[in-house]
User: Fold these one by one.
Assistant:
Number 1:
Amino acid sequence: MSRSVLERLERLPRRDLTVLALKGISTLVPGGWSNPTSADQMISEVIGSQDPQLIRQVRIRADQLSGARAEGYGRALSLYDAVNRSQHATGGLRLLANVTAGLPLLKRISGITPPGDTLQAVDLSLKVGAELLAFTQVNGLPGDSFADFGAALADYAGEARVRMAALICFDGLLPLGDQALQRLDGLLGAAGSGDLHKLPAYGRMAALIPGRGDAAHMSFLRRGVDQWLGWAGGFVGQLGLSGQKAVAALEGSIGPWQGRFDQLAAFLDAFTDTYAHTGVQAVARRLVERAAAEI
Amino acid sequence: MPRPLRWALAIGLAGLLIVGGALLLPFSDWFPGGTVAGISKQEVVNGTAFNRLFPAPAAGEDLVFSQEKRGFSEARLKRDGAVVALLAISDTSTAPEARAKFESASEAIAGWPLVEQGPQASALLVADRFQVKVIGQGSGLDPQRRHALLGAFDLPRIAALEPSRQSRTKPRGQLAEQLGEALPAAPPATLQPQPELQPAA
């Protein structure tokens, strides 16, 4: 039996590398981030009351909702988990390639690892696509028109600002450079379906992506990324995000870094779970808001 | 047991398993755990039907829809970019326990019972089925403002909503179905909402 969303929330780490990396990035975002890991506290924030009986009712309802397969909460979390595992795998490979590149006997390993930029771009588009799919799994298609849906999506992105900042910095600006968002479309255009198959997460996500076949999936991802790029470009401009600033912010919480930016990105990919960590928190928040309205 | 027989048995069993699984696949929604409280999706009013019944935002305020599922729709009321309140309509058919609190309700809006849940939430039960709720967020809303928001929902049309298929477990729905089959021309009178017959308090 899989764990409910709120149980997953309470099992999130309170202090580890993931939390430190997110704390570092959150200094770039106004409003900050508090790493919510207590379900009861989240519930009492939403209902504006400390009444233990009300909190218990909301919690029971939330567990009932997250246990129902048709409601999509479990599916959203498994999407995040799939992306997370894929991120660990590719991050580990890139790290290995970096380490072995300096050793004469092991140089060949760096030859078998997939080359950086295109794969990194596909990885980012897969994450944005997973975000879009998870959004529809958790929230449905809110509103009656496409404009309503767009507003709901923008509202959600605004709420998950630290999550988006982490995505943009760790998967865009650090590995691909400051022009990451401008380069992304070109890189994705150059990517073939073979690149898609190199990412372990794709196999698990394929069934949930609309359209049949790799080409249809690739075009869905590109359209999703196009939508997201408009918003992300404004976000980057507004906060003045850059690789340099991201590294400075991370050094404030993790410690000094003297390597290249893409090595830092590979290190973070291999050893942190920022995407799944903030994903669980975002899903839990939406679930609690629903449960509070239904009790 | 001879070897060919063993093979035939194994293949036969595997085939049965696959065929049985394929036959049961369309019914996965009915298996326990598939839907909320084990109630079929068709018996719950879809959230799309709720969207247009939300109150129109006042000047300077924004209404942003945030969630829409079977039996649930939620929007955020925003002023100057900050969330002031969560507005929601839900179908209580998957949460019958939510109806219990209205039995002791002493107030009413437009004839429907009204209860307070803690200092920030007000809930209204429409047609003994749909729960309309306003939850103050951030700095919060006073009760008068919450009640005004509840009154601004399109309550008569909420009361008139119907699911795409009536519950088979409810005797009332079953009776209406039988009546409807016997007399297709006659409207199922028992299913019509009758707000004037509801207790005012």
Number 2:
Amino acid sequence: MKILILALFCFHLHASSWHDLELGLGQFYELPYQTSNSESQIFQLSPVILSKIAYNLNDSWELNPLFSWVIYQEHENSSSNQNIFIPQLNATYKYNQELHFTIGTSVVIYSTSGDATEEELPNGTGETTYFSPSERRNSYQQNLNLGFNYQFDQYTFNFDSYSYKLFNSELREVSLLFSFTKIFEIN
Amino acid sequence: MKQLILLLISFKSYAFFLITNNGAAFNSNKVKIYISSNSTCTNAGWTKSDILNMAVDGAKDTWNKVGRADITVKKGGEYNTSDGDFLTGELCVADSDTTCAAGTVPKVSNIIIACNNNGTNFPSNSVLAISAPNNISGTKIRGSVILLNDRADSQLGSFSKSEMEKILAHEIGHALGIGHSEDKDAFMYHTEIQNKSKLAKDDIYALSHLYPYSIDDMSCLGFLGSINYPSNKNYWNNGLMALSIGFLSIILALSFFQYAWARLSNNQQKV
């Protein structure tokens, strides 16, 4: 099975077909958790750094390995921090020169860590000592990616959506990524 | 417009906390919740059956919906006991090195709810419930207790069913190992829990930290939510395999639709 998958991926791989490297910035929204107890959560800033590379399959299709890093802010009391890493593989359909549609799959890695500090927080009529995480832990999730991008000059506007458990109404999660990337031609 | 821009650039930080300093969590991904059989809950104003059902419904609406955390709280039933310390004993948060004094709430397995009137647990009627793991071994929680205020002046009976579900969901969060949060939007914030509609990101990150899906748990086509790939400790056979097969499936499906579309277009031209 490994050989079959490798063979399928390597079929047609020519160095000359790698043609564009894109680097950019974006904003990430986790929809199920940003429509809840306060409006501020809807517009919370979750900056993303991303890079992708394009591999031409034919006139209509290209492959796009992509890596995104969603950076969350550390709390000012340095208790805990969260990051999301998203390695992904998309197939892009070039509808015309400007407008492209993408579909693919990704492994979303939710990474949480802390510095093992103690904090006294209100509890009932008094205070209780709680602890921030003492180690980094990662939770992995496979998502379906759907999106489109619009190219103009050497820049691209990208819209990507990440769906988890699409057909499970209880556990379905959808995240959105809006990003601008600059294109660097490498071939 | 100005308000929208301000909101768009507002930074929000997170600060979830845990009950233990080593991030202790249940070892199983399915935890059952019971209610002690000797609880009468007369002053709490709810029947045992109501309380258990509200706790399970509260968990279903909150913690059980977190797709990135590998934990499900399920209904157990009545926990048969005649031990009066469940009803009158002080809650002792104990790890394997701690010895609790006589007369404290007994160590348990899974999650046990009891209606309790101990004055140290509930110094006033403003404390609605308390909860903590009371059976910990290293980084593993073996059992947790949720105690509901059953003092004569308990306020629990004045809350609606929906509010009680949220209060109990907050306590289940503690039972699972999550501490209070500094985020006012979080379910694990120390007050106004009954006014929260759903979990905040802070709660989600705390739960996924305690109960993460490992790379070995990834399923082939997991984004569809149904097809599980046999799990083992081989990195390639799980994470990369899931990514590769998922991607190839999409390509095959696209190829099929492209082929079908081309055939359909050709047929229309012939007509």
Number 3:
Amino acid sequence: MAEPRPVLEMTGIVKEFPGVRALSGVDFRLFPGEIHALMGENGAGKSTLIKVLTGVHPLDGGTITLDGKAVRIGSPLQAQHAGISTVYQEVNLCPNLSVAENIFIGREPTRAGRIQWKQIRKQAAEMVDRLGLDIDVTAPLSSYPLAVQQLVAIVRSVGHGDSDGEGSGTKVLVLDEPTSSLDRDEVLELFRLMRRLRDEGVAILFVSHFLDQIYEICDRMTVLRNGTLVGEHMVADLDQVGLIELMIGKALDQLEELHEHQLRSDVGETLVKAEGLGRTGGIAPFDLEIKKGEVLGLAGLLGSGRTELARLLFGADQPDSGKVTIVGKQVPMSAPNDAIGAGVAFCSENRKTEGLVPDLTVRENIILALQASRGWTRPIPASQRDELVAKYIKALDIRPANPEARVGQLSGGNQQKVLLARWLITQPKLLILDEPTRGIDVGAKAEIQKLVVSLSEDGMSVLYIAAELEEVLRLSHTIGVLRDRKLVAQLTNGPEITTSRILETIASGEHQ
Amino acid sequence: MSTPSATTPARWRALTHHHLFWPVAVLVALLLVNVPFTPDFFAIRMADGHLYGSLVSIVLFGSPLILVAVGMTLVIATGGIDLSVGAVVAITGALTCSYISDQADQNALAGVFLAMGIGLVAAVVCGLWNGFLVARMGIQPIIATLIIMVAGRGVAQLITDGQIITINSEPYKLIGGGYWLTLPFSIFVVAAVVAVTVALTRRTALGLLVESVGGNAEASRLVGIRSMRIKIMVYMFCALCAGIAGLMISSNTSAADGNNAGLWIELDAILAVVIGGTSLLGGRFSIGGTVIGALVIQTLTTTIYTIGVPTQTNLVFKAAVVIVVCLLQSPKFRAKVFGAKGRARVTAPAEPATPADAAPKMEVSR
């Protein structure tokens, strides 16, 4: 096959942040009509490369060529005008407006200064229809699930070129982690749309941490490591093991080790006991026991009540029935303070909104929980603080290892580690991890899972929530299965428990 | 990005990136503007054992604003705002003066201290009310504090029976109009309050917790910070600062004017905080920046008088300068006007020279 000319070529891209060289001389190219995966660990420079391409960050060196012409992309708007559209993990639309309004925000067709509402609805319906989607464009966006909202965001981005009169159309579509909160059917729907756009000649840049998805949908991939280019391969030529080795720069033994790792077999006495704990609209009343040193995994589909259960155990939401006993003492659970005081820690699935304080430094974020429990009058002595922070930065391999760095500038995996450090420093009895491995790469994923195993060995109990069943199965002593906001079964892990067994339980909704 | 030969520019950049650089630069520029109009602007002379000079006056007249702005900084850092400080200034002044004026001997120290105590307690109660509405009832800070902003002046008028109360108390006069160790006494009050505030926020964990609450309220709740307590405390502290400013203003004029004492000082204070580099969105705050911001505003007022701007154009002139100051503070504006582009172009060709295959780790300078 003769190689056509790439639609996009980035050469020698350099990007620096204070104290960090995020990209050093990266080359990247994208051909029309292909789906191209950008792979790499957290902090490898994927997000930075995308942000340089889409005009969010100005580049410090290198050139970008679009359709053979050198371009300067100074802002997201310029990127859009040049034909580069982006859909981010978090949908940046207005949920209170209708689908049609969302598609046309900022470029409404007007006549004599008045917005042509009819035309907006008609055109929006046509655009949705052309892409084979079944969406009522007059309904408010919020009436659709997140997955559909994401599709609308894509419609909005690719529809842009047609309507702005320049006739350029979208040449490059960037999808940054679009699948991280979608279920299987929704992913398939997204893939259908992606294939359709690809066949229309759009070049799609796809970022996902799900390797299976990469192998399902992508044609070609570029691998980054530590801000440099490691290689560009056809997907068909590189198997998953090879890819992971390229990404983390070392052989897979380390990951394999985990599979053979024996779970601690003797869990201790009961640590946390929930009886009839429930909250209307959150999760139906449930009974649950977590033993000392036990890893309790929660399995269930998105929205099945996993997070809601965890939040009740932490007092993040107030229960309206039932009680919680921790080491024999009843805890009121009217606020997170109650749970924290009893030795419970909670890493939320929403790192940005419920976890980090982005303006503060790594050090300040790490000591926050410990400081909060000491109260404002008893600051942690500086020497002790610095020692603790340095210890956890080293133990969790947080990069950059600079306690003064602003946490907002770290990559997703490192932010997750900062959150973990924040809670580990308080030496909790029960650590609740809600999707700790979401949106982070293989290497960091393995590290976090290993950490869970060793914490459990040291006698800490862990409540572990993950979308990937393999993860739950690998780590947990007991697996709680949720369905439709109900805890339907608790399975003791053993050789006879497999992912398909868990799936059956989810599907049937009863203990078999 | 810095090559070994570029240490001077690097140092210069480190300096211009310091968070106090632009506020200080603006302050210095404003001070210099005065020199052509009053050549002895920077001169400080001694008369009657007191130091006199424009610089001393700026600090003296700026004292109440500095106090109010310092309290406001903490409120703004939690993501709030306090519009009631002007009214609190008036209430404190009114209560204190009316108590002193009722005394048989207005110079009795005990009476003066008691009067000040009453005024300050009233101020703190106002702060408690604000904090209660904001933190406990969840009312938008701008609305919650609007209540005392509007009603407070009415209360002050009630206390003074709608009159301007004048007093004649030597000890009370000291706070806002007296001298100590050749300097205006209010400068010492301001220095003490600023020192206490810095110690309170940076020597304890209060500053960190305030910044955390302002930076991400939900995350702070989930980490176990008692943000309600912290917010109430901060509003009370802000009102206390306003109360001290109220004492100072009424002491300086030996009178309590429920209508005009501290009028619009809340707006100047908010401006001072913003000029000082604290974001209205909350989070990181800088007490030092606020002090400089307040000095900028007071210098501006002084400048308006020294260069003889006609009274009726006072406010327009002030507004124009404020706009310039705010624009200078905006990194976006500076990049547009002073051209960050030029610099980027110079460094760009040098970069690809880095051997790509050397695979540098994410390197951390410093």
Number 4:
Amino acid sequence: MKAPRDFLSEEGIQLGRNSVREEVECIQWLISIRWWAPILITAIAGMGVLAGFDEGLAKLFLVVAYVMGYNTLFYRWSRRLEAEPVATQHRLHHFVIWQAAVDCSALLLLTYFTGGTISPVCFLFVLPMIPVSTILSARSTYGFTAFVLAGITLLTIVEQLGWLPHQSPIFRQKEIFSPPNLQQLLFSLLVLYLLLTTATFLATTRSKVKKDKTKALEDLFESVTKLNRKFWRLFSMIQNIGSAQNLEQLLDVVSSEAAVVMNVKGISIKLLSEDAKYLRYAAAYGLPEDFVREKAVEVKKSPLNKRIIEGESFVTGNVTTTEMFQFGEVLAEAQIKSVLFLPLRLEGKVIGILGAYCLLPDRFTDEDVDFFRLVAELVAIALENARAYEAVEKLVKERSWYMLRVAHNLRAPLAGMLSILDVVRGEYLGSLNAEQQEYLRRLDRRSRTMLMMVNELMTLAKSREAQPTDQTRSVEPELVAQRIRRTFQERAGEKNISFNVTVPEDLPAIRGDLEMVEQILENLVSNAIKYTLPDGKVEVKFSPAATMIRMEVSDTGIGIPKSDRSRLFSEFFRAENARAIEKNGTGLGLAIVKEFVDKLGGRILVESEERMGTIFVVDLPVAKNQKGSQHDRAGNP
Amino acid sequence: MKKKAEILVVDDDPDITDSLKIILESHDFTVRTASNGKEAIEALEDQIPDLMILDIMMATDTEGFDLAYDLKENPKFKNLPIIMLTSFLEKVREEGPGNFAYILGEQWPAHWLFEKPLDTNRLLDKIDDILNESP
């Protein structure tokens, strides 16, 4: 299973980028709008000239040139910003301030050319406030307003002192804005102050609301990201739990994973004994060794543990001395400040206690406790799963062991029996008549059949024991074919059955163990010969089948009745018509075949027609490393 | 042959010792039997035979082996040829690397190992081989 993408946090980066992108777009919008300023000024000046203004308008083209000049620079600059993968907020702010400042200088120039402070153009100073207020903080915006007002005031003073000549458009030899007197000047300055301050106030209050909202959104986003991270960890914990092989390993995985998920220093898992009298430290992570050394706790003597087992959760943000008594001095030495204990509950029954330990005081909030409860539930389920699995595994092992033991114990008396038979049949105790010989021969035969059954039972028992097959080994089909030919040629010849094993050239090696592959074929071929009447035919054919090697064992024998096919591979089963031919079969052969095919990761199919014959098709996976086959050939002469 | 060769058969299964005794005696061997390691040692102290047939698993899974190793370390008996018997050749073979690690090594204390039930003819052939080998 693949871990899901940490999609929310990735989206978060996207969102962060978006807010930057928005500002870049805003800047570009400003620049594109600014192109209209020179056009407008030109149009106004042009109309003025047509209307009969005598002079003073030509100077406006200076402003036009100035605006066009700096806007071109700004345009280039903004293109470069766009190319940057992540433009920082900081740089963007600087860019906005620069633009606004330069715009103000252009406006000052325009104001100067059109009559100074009394010029109606003064009102245009509101315009640069708009971008500034949307991007910068309220305080910076006010600062900027103060800067602009200082600029205008300075211009007025300079003009008033006569350091710069008063400028005004002239209409029919008359200045439309004649130099104002002091009262006029102060009045218009006052109006301008009021106007700009009000505009700034209005602009900043609105954008403050917007900014607050954005901040709230960002906070929300952050908490969602955190939550996502938590759940993602929870998910990976579940994954890791799934990969644990046994209870011991699972406990280790769970405790270390839980520490990561909960973001705490230490985790302990205590399990309740079956009689519910003791708590045993089953696992600990990140805790001092001494802490866990005292492995079992008597529940009766520990009121705190008792409370938790009864279903309460326990949180403390500042471990006190009395509580410390419960946890031991070791914990104090480790400087643990916050502790959280939760019952591990499964289907309403408490099976243990999950503990979390943290160095920070007051670490665990209600929210954390809820989340940890979730983790505790998961841990409980995982533990129960592992226990169940181990119980099953133990049962399987016990069964195999029992089968082996029985088989062994059956062999010893059989060996003794056959040994005595040897003495009697060998006429060491006196000669026997033909009839006696015949009966003893039958006795010997039945005993040997029994021995065979015991041997097969042992093979089966051994193969049941969980021993993973060696995935790195490989078997050369030709080698198996040779062995099978050698083993059965004679037996087939005796019954006058034609026996053929064919392997195409360049067939890849089979993954697995030679003994197993050989056993599979031996069993199938031996059956085929057994159940094929004289003058019949038995064939073994190897062929490639996608990523598998196919081995077909076909015969022209008695076939397998349809009704028996489903039980074919189960232990001790023998088809009705097979019993009629061979009384002494054990019924274990095909069970062994199935067992081995499963172990090698292959599959087996059977096609059969009564009185016509049977085909067993075995597909086994191809070996991964082809070179290994040479080795195997050398290793198994 | 100057004198009858003597064989000591050690097995805790009287069916095996009895039948082997009959078979071997009729093939002109002198046969003594013992049913455990201790009896075997006593019999050996009494007189060293020409060959010993020794079952591996008696009271313990490795009693026969233990005896064989003890004998190999004893200068008095270290040249005594041994044929071992086991009902569980497979067990010996498969558990070789584990419980029976020392069996498969160079320190292997026996001349041969037969699986029970015995093939009488092969046993007799092997006995002849061994006796002819060691003067």
